[in-house]
Amino acid sequence: MSRLKLGLMLGFAAIVPQTAWSAEPELSPAATAHAAQWPVAHWPWRTDRKIEARIKHLLAAMSVEEKVGQILQADIASVTPEEVRRYHLGSVLNGGNAGPGGDDYAPAEQWLKLADAFYDASMDRSAGGHGIPVMWGTDAVHGHSNIIGATLFPHNSGLGAMRDPALIRQIAAATAIEVRTTGIDWTFAPTITVPQDTRWGRAYEGYSSDPKLVTSYAGPFIEGLQGKPNTGAVLAGPHVIATAKHFLADGGTAQGRDQGDAQISEKTLRDVHAPPYVAAINAGVLSVMASFSSWNGEKMTGNRSMLTDVLKHRMGFGGLVVSDWNAHGQVAGCTNASCPRAVNAGIDMYMAPDSWKALYTSLNAQVRDGTVSKARLDEAVASVLRVKLRAGLFEAGRPSARPYAGKFDLLGAAEHRRIAREAVRKSLVLLKNQGGLLPLRAGSRILVAGDGADDVARQSGGWTLSWQGTGVTPAMFPGATSLWQGIRSAAASAGGAATLSPDGSFSGQRPDAAIVVFGETQYAEFQGDLTTLRLKPEQRGPLETMRKLKAQGIPVVAVMLTGRPLWTNPELNAADAFVVAWLPGSEGAGVADMLLSPAQGKAPEFNGRLSFAWPATARPDGPVLFPLGYGLTSKVPGALAPLSEEPGVAEVAASADLYLAKGVAGPGWSLEARDEGGSTRITTVPAVSAGGRVAVTATDHVVQEGARRFTVSGSGTASVAITSHAAADLSRQTNGEMLLVATLRIDQQPAAPLHFSLGSGAATARLDVGQMDALPVGQWRRVAVPLKCFRTAGADMAKVDMPFAIEFAGPGSLSLSEVRLGMEADVTLNCAKGG
Length: 835
Ligand code: BGC
Ligand code: BGC
Fold this sequence. Notes:
Blueprint: H1 2-15, H2 49-61, H3 64-70, E1 72-75, H4 81-87, E2 91-94, H5 108-123, E3 135-138, H6 156-162, H7 165-181, E4 186-187, H8 211-226, E5 243-247, E6 261-262, H9 266-273, H10 275-282, E7 287-290, E8 294-295, E9 298-299, H11 304-314, E10 320-322, H12 340-345, E11 350-351, H13 356-368, H14 374-391, H15 393-396, H16 414-427, E12 429-433, E13 445-449, H17 456-460, H18 483-493, E14 497-500, E15 513-519, H19 541-551, E16 556-561, H20 569-574, E17 577-582, H21 589-595, E18 614-615, E19 624-626, E20 658-661, E21 664-665, E22 670-675, E23 678-681, E24 687-688, E25 694-701, E26 703-712, E27 718-723, H22 731-735, E28 739-748, E29 754-760, E30 763-770, E31 780-786, H23 787-792, E32 802-808, E33 812-822, E34 827-828
Parallel strand pairs: 1-2, 1-11, 2-3, 3-4, 5-7, 6-8, 7-10, 13-14, 13-15, 15-16, 16-17, 31-34
Antiparallel strand pairs: 8-9, 12-17, 18-19, 20-21, 20-33, 22-23, 22-27, 24-25, 25-26, 26-33, 27-32, 28-31, 28-33, 29-30, 29-32
């Protein structure tokens, strides 16, 4: 009570010298939309008098605090049910790396249990609230893809190749049911982006670069998830609330940079990126997520002309606009802790994973001092309540008591897998078929090679169980079928046989044909951004396998796992047949269906057509080899003249993310030992620092001399540092939750606490990481510190010329083999010790 009073007084004092709108900077003309030039959509939801009366009644009764809580969404990793009760939070989400009890891989029962706990907390009125049911959002972006055992549908770039809106509707309907088994109400799908540059790490989340194709899918997908508007409460049927994302031009950024800037005219913004939203609004999509990205230098999340004037007023969108993961913190003039501009621009709910509490405080103050008007707050709350009421959340009861809840046999149900398998079959695109090699005839002896052949995680891509889709094990995919498993059983039932040999070697009988699986490995968001359209060097191994097999006269079928078109002329040359499998998901058997003829019945026929143009070089703006819409049918033998193997771009050298590899400084970085004598650059070993206190020797890790051992003697500080003359910008990686990971071994326990440092000059953060006594001496461990800890401790993440230093305050010895940015570690230190 007294805190509240104080807040009021402070708020009042703050308002005196300034007007309510002074916090709103003007948008630049280039980033100001002219709403009258935009299309009009037809919001189909009829105004419901009962719902409107209920909203009015609630708004009149709710306190400002309760209203502010209603427009906040917290991540389950950073909020408890008790806090949902106390702060009256309107929504929770699970980010890609969050799960019940901190376990991303928790079984479905735990998700449902947690949904009940959040719901019960939201309905509890003991903290003075009105018992408004909380709404839970999840990224069910290719099936209920955070949950073990769910059906994993192909990612969207593959679905685009089917050109089958009816199947899209079925995929969405099956996904909705699987989401409902876990008691979750809301999915952040479909992504109706129109990617124009496939270097973007999210290109695979887009159906196509063609606005028409994306538009043809938006409505059916949304209806598949939500059902038809005005047919009763969404949650009364087998449905969930949908989200059209990310508004607008997430796929139009310069160089395909994730969260970048779309430097395009208003006409392009409107004609290329907006058409799918018209379809989404016409289908009654209940939420739209604002894009992280900018348009001509202004973040969408703060662009009132776009969110309010265009989306709500002109296009008539009547659902709620949710912002993206801490995107508000990137708006000019804002931080994660405070951003009145977002709600003033038209955001109705802040996705504030770990920043919700600070926002709760700042928004309450901003409403009191008028920076955010009461009218605008009411409008945002009304949007949230309207969605909840249309969904039927107020009547739905506990999540576990709702239809489909707890029916876990529906997760990965046979019928859903059948739909997914059909989608896989229809999405495959045949680019070459020399001599009509495909489909392989029944009875063939098939060699299956390539490192991606037996890997469900890899064929499922990012947003699969974990955010990046990495760090998972085969056991986490019960009921799924890898490409290899599919081929093995198809070959056997057609009277032939298949053998798995990742490197393509075989003994004994020569195979009739080889299938070599190759392509991209998992990634999500900016971690998938590329500078050229080329597979990474470590992904090019299977090409050699193809060449070897071809040299032995064995016909080769190349099957590419990829989220997007990439330059593959060498593979196209080396293979007799080439199939783009995209990221097919859990039903690898769908690929086998298309590669092999059955013993009896009709041979399969390819129908998929490219959803994006296929490049002739690795240059992003280079010529096209196969245009959008291209795809062979297996009836016509598709020969292909030899292609140039000149990529047209230089290999990209230094990665900004790798500082030390095999004990040696990465390209552009140097390794130094420092003591009272100064800094000594370590190029060869053994070496000793200038003052003689740091001895550096080679030691083995994975490979011979794959690490360096540092032995510090004497008293006073001494350190090992990785530095460069050119500073790296790590702000994106910091916002993206990346870790600084050192693969190290303690050889002799340090006598005093160690410090890890990162930064540049005065803006260097130094964190106390203790004596590493939790680490077993003599054993290698990947030890990580979240990048954001360094930011919190004062590092300027935009200018880092020393990404890593380890400082001793006394004797000790440790070995280092690798230092990099990454997502995985054995031990992750928390920020608490920083100082
Ligand atoms: C992504 C969204 C996603 C959200 C929640 C963001 O980083 O851009 O697409 O829905 O996280 O996981
Ligand atoms: C979350 C994702 C989110 C991303 C944003 C991750 O930690 O799990 O859901 O999209 O951060 O950068």
